[in-house]
Write a structure and sequence with these properties.
It comes from Candidatus Geothrix odensensis. This protein is of the alpha+beta class. It has 2 domains: 141 residues, no CATH class; 236 residues, 4-Layer Sandwich (Anthranilate synthase). It has 12 helices and 23 strands. It has a 23-stranded antiparallel β-sheet that branches. The protein is globular and about 65 Å long.
Length: 426
């Protein structure tokens, strides 16, 4: 996690990790978890920038006061006010509005984005903790030890999910997209379906279990003011380090069984599958085009095409696209060009989003929007919140989806939806 803190101080943990994280999380800490490196960042957020839909437009507020401009402009303005990173998330529908794309209607009061500045955080890797701060007078060690006092026992949690539509409905939606593709309306569309569930236990306990089981490269547990977001994403939507832009779209899936021989054969089949390669290529071209809108001419390149990457429950085809940012490129312009991510819309974006606004069961919310961190110097790391639960009390919504091409098998697409629920149900 390249967040460049101003101060770093070792901190002896008062108990085993992650047992001592619960006290901090119950104080509303934002938790970013990088499964492939085993890093965790638990950050104490400040006053948040919040954008809500009022029935006609987005209203932006920072600490109770209004901020003018579009949501992305308000975010850029807020980030520029502080020398610390901001952690948060934005919805698919807000990203669609900023990009001028069709989307599902929203109820008045719907939350569109929530970002909070982070002046202090706890960084943990390999059981070693450090206090990170971006201010000159951070909290002392004694205060951190109080915040980290472990709970009597680690809680337990479980989730039961049920799809909001059945296999026949999903098959009909897949076949309708295939008709539209044959008519020339678009090339590939990412069709998503919501699962509803009941959470038994604490979201913190669910996150602890899910992070350990799924080891997500871009895990997050965020309190968004009455809504908790638990993301187990493995897809980097967009990163920026200086002038270097990077996106790592995922398209193409195969189950992971735990049998080395079967999984190796499945990986080879996935890499050679004409349907999966065609779907991936179309999304890869879309991502290259999106980055090209804000990059130095000729700088967009695919540095790692269609690599098979393995996760605890699934294998994916992943490509890495890099580009050099155009001089003077601002945050709002960058986000407007890239979001919503091509791998969760389809190509061309406008035609696909218009169809999905009619075909899907409801607004996606934070699923398929963006989650991560943004710094005042312009650096950022945003994941696509796939494998993501939106939790309110005991009620939980979890979307899954997949890219539909003319070669798609409706039965296989239905099975893929359920395969992707295993990240949270175990």
């Amino acid at each position: 996690m390249d967040l460049a803190p101003r101060h770093r101080h070792p901190l002896p943990l008062p108990a085993s990790w992650p047992a001592c994280a619960q006290g901090l999380l119950q104080r509303g800490a934002a938790w970013l978890h990088t499964g492939d490196t085993g890093e965790s960042l638990l950050a104490l957020p400040g006053q948040a920038l919040v954008s809500r839909w009022n029935g006609r437009a987005w209203e932006n507020r920072l600490g109770g006061g209004p901020l003018p401009g579009s949501p992305w402009e308000a975010l850029a303005s807020a980030v520029a006010r502080k020398s610390c990173p901001w952690i948060g998330a934005a919805t698919f529908e807000l990203a669609c509005d900023e990009a001028g794309l069709p989307r599902k209607p929203l109820e008045a009061g719907a939350l569109g984005q929530h970002w909070a500045p982070v002046e202090e955080a706890l960084h943990v890797k390999d059981g070693q903790a450090e206090r990170w701060s971006w201010v000159d007078s951070p909290a002392g060690q004694d205060r951190w030890m109080d915040w980290l006092a472990p709970a009597a026992e680690l809680g337990r949690a479980s989730v039961q999910l049920e799809a909001l539509w059945g296999e026949a409905q999903h098959q009909a939606a897949v076949e309708e997209i295939q008709v539209r593709i044959l008519d020339g309306d678009f090339y590939v569309a990412n069709l998503c379906a919501p699962f509803k569930g009941r959470l038994s236990g604490d979201p913190v306990a669910l996150a602890l279990m899910a992070f350990q089981r799924a080891r997500p490269p871009f895990g997050a547990l965020l309190d968004l003011g009455g809504l908790q977001l638990l993301s187990l994403s493995m897809e980097r939507l967009l990163s920026r380090r200086g002038s270097l832009l990077r996106s790592q779209p995922i398209k193409g899936s195969a189950p992971l069984t735990g049998d080395p021989e079967r999984d190796h054969m499945a990986a080879e089949a996935l890499a050679a599958d004409p349907k999966e390669r065609a779907e991936h290529t179309m999304i890869l071209d879309l991502v290259r085009n999106d980055l090209g809108r804000v990059a130095v001419a000729g700088s967009v390149q695919v540095v790692r095409p269609m690599a098979v990457e393995t996760y605890p429950t699934v294998q994916h085809l992943v490509s890495t696209v890099e580009a050099t940012a155009r001089p003077g490129l601002g945050l709002a312009e960058l986000l407007r060009a890239v979001l919503p991510g091509g791998s969760v819309t389809g190509a061309p974006k406008h035609a696909v989003c218009g169809h999905l606004a009619q075909a899907e069961a409801g607004p996606r919310g934070f699923y398929c929007g963006a989650v991560g961190w943004i710094s005042a110097n312009g650096d950022l790391d945003l994941a696509l919140p796939i494998r993501t639960a939106q939790i309110q009390g005991e009620q939980l919504t979890y979307w899954t989806g997949g890219g539909i091409t003319r070669r798609s098998d409706p039965a296989r697409e239905w099975a893929e939806l359920h395969l992707k629920t295993r990240a949270i149900t175990g």
